[in-house]
Amino acid sequence: MEPKKRSICPTTVEMLKKAGSDGTNTAFDRSDALLPCPIGSQGNCCKICAMGPCRVSHMNEEGQEIENCGVCGATPSTIAARNFLRMIAAGASAHSDHGRAVAEVFNAVAHGKGGDYEIKDMKKLYQVAMDFGIDIEDKSTSDLAKEIGALALGEFGKQEGQLNFIKKAPLKRQKLWEEKGVIPRGVDREIVEALHRTNMGVDQDYKNILQHGARTSLADGWGGSMIATELQDILFGTPYPLLSKINLGVLKPNKVNVVVHGHEPILSEMIVQASKDEEINELVREKGADGINIAGICCTANEILMRHGIPIAGNFLQQELALVTGAVDAMVVDVQCIMQSLESVANCYHTKLITTSPRAKMTGVQHMEFDEHQPLESAKAILRIAAENFPKRKAEPHIPQEEMDLVAGFSHETINYLLGGVFRASYRPLNDNIINGRIRGVAGVVGCNNPRVVHDSAHITLIKELLKNDVLVLQTGCSAMAAAKAGLLTPEAAKKYAGEGLAEVCETVGIPPVIHMGSCVDNSRILMAATALVKEGGLGEDISDLPAAGAAPEWMSEKAVAIGQYFVTSGVYTIFGATWPTLGNQEVNDYLFDNISEEFGGKWAFEPDPKKMAQLILNHIDAKRKELKIDKARERVLYDMDMRREMASQ
Ligand code: NFS
């Protein structure tokens, strides 16, 4: 396919052309060459034992749909539900193993063995201590940190009781979860149980399997992911709004370009710190460069953007293209969303690709284990390699010009502060503007890129439709990067893209109409923002009452399924684009797209067309406004505006 049909992002198109002429193969090429398996993509393939793999539903040579059972008798619904639960469990494991790594570093810091890491946000330390139910009176910060560290680590292996952060949800929601029996015990326990239940011959009732999917997902959203976010904020600082830039134009021809790619800020924070080291900068100058330039890809980029304003090179589908510029002297990766093809792409240019986590090595790639006891030294060693590599560039780099300004750094706490001020921090102004109809509703737009969708296009079409209709957009992950590249993360975007009501609120408060809340584990911040809206009052008693919805228009990772499910289980209407993992099974679809809402108030939907997706979200928001009896208020606001326009034209 022609590069310009591949992406709406100009640097992506430019680098795809260059990759073509350099003979470099990318994910875009491979997705053309490799069509998705028609059986697997519909959730109709069972390969959990050696009697199969069983294709349980397929077309025969006459084109008739054949629906049969697996060799063991497993029905297509059981198989589709098992596959779905395994996706949730895998996604939850990724976020949670990240959370555990942070908890381990946090615990080491609390015991004075944290090397160069330290506690940066004392206020958040106290907040999290209270969330854990710790009596904070008369305790030193070091004692509090030790207690938090022990409790946080304990959340993973807990056998009984419930995860602590469940208590942060609205009371009505907690009660509902209890009634439905889905409150997670330990994070690891739920994930292990998911794998056990989906073994050959164990759980065979698709609803029972999916009920455990609900519980496993909560162990992610209100467990592993939330632990990651909260402890990262204490260790590295709670984000506050800041300016930065995005897109491949942030790479600089005369600097040593180091791209950090992956997910855990434990690594990227230290790379940022080491880049300021005088000895490293001396070496960089010795090698003929004008300095060192750090840029991020994927969610680790979001982490260091949110806390340091480090620019972002690009989102998921730009990881190979960053190397195609010929300007990246080192790409350092840790875990998750790292394409194995990076090794061959790096070999086409001069880039040193370096793996750092014992959990994620790559054949043929230099491994430099990141020593968490001497993190700064590890980071410096990586930067030395990058500096040494600068003079080895094979050709003049070809860096696209485009870079875009953005404002990021919106934690749940800073939204509170921005809206209410230091002394009256609150969500009241946001609730009031939703109630009076200036803001029609709120949508979380998150998730990945997927080469089966024109890169970034579904994100941008959906978000623009929502803004036009006065929907405030909260974002994380690679979707936030797509919006940032399109200029939607600037305060000026309100005037340009938002409806009058939303634009007015954004201009008064001085925020963009699209709020970047961080990486994918930071979807827990969106849960907290939704909870704050409920607790502030006037918008119902539960997350499911809010005029709000979620979407992942270009998803590809199992992590997205885990996130989507914890939003649904938390009461949110959640729509996925691209494809849907149980497409081939009516019974499971009927449950996930419809009946599940009787249990949890939220439900799934699948809609690949972003305009139709926006309409579904607006319909849902309007229905919720009606239930809350605030639909009339909005009509009045709109009427007032029409009247104003009419008066202006007279
Ligand atoms: Ni999320 Fe972040 Fe991006 Fe998708 Fe991958 S980087 S954790 S999974 S591709 S949004």
Q: Radius of gyration over alpha carbons?
A: 24 Å
Shape: globular
- Give the number of domains: 4
CATH architecture of the largest domain: 3-Layer(aba) Sandwich
Largest sheet: 6 strands, parallel
CATH class designation of the largest domain = Alpha Beta
Helix content: 40-55%
Number of strands: 18
Content of β-strand: 5-15%
- Between the first and last Cα atoms, what is the distance in angstroms? 52 Å
Give the names of the bound compounds: FE(4)-NI(1)-S(5) cluster
* Average pLDDT number: 95
* Residue windows where pLDDT falls under 50 for at least 5 positions: none
* Largest sheet, spatial ordering of strands: 8-7-6-9-10-11
CATH topology of the largest domain, which one? Rossmann fold
Secondary-structure-based class equals alpha/beta
Number of helices: 25
What would you say this structure looks like, in words?
- Helices cover 50% and strands 11% of the residues.
- The protein has 650 residues and is α/β, with parallel strands linked by helices.
- It has 4 domains: 3-67, no CATH class; 76-236, Substrate Binding Domain Of Dnak, Chain:A, Domain 2; 248-392, Rossmann fold (3-Layer(aba) Sandwich); 408-627, 3-Layer(aba) Sandwich (Rossmann fold), CATH 3.40.50.2030.
- The strands form 5 sheets. It has a 6-stranded parallel sheet with strand order 8-7-6-9-10-11, with helices on both faces. A 6-stranded parallel sheet has the order 15-14-13-16-17-18, with helices on both faces. Strands 1-2 form a two-stranded antiparallel sheet.
- Strand 16 (548-552), helix 22 and strand 17 form a beta-alpha-beta unit.
- The relative contact order is 0.12.
- Bound molecules: FE(4)-NI(1)-S(5) cluster (NFS).
- Residues 263, 298-299, 316, 337, 447-448, 477-478, 519-520, 557, 559 line the site of FE(4)-NI(1)-S(5) cluster.
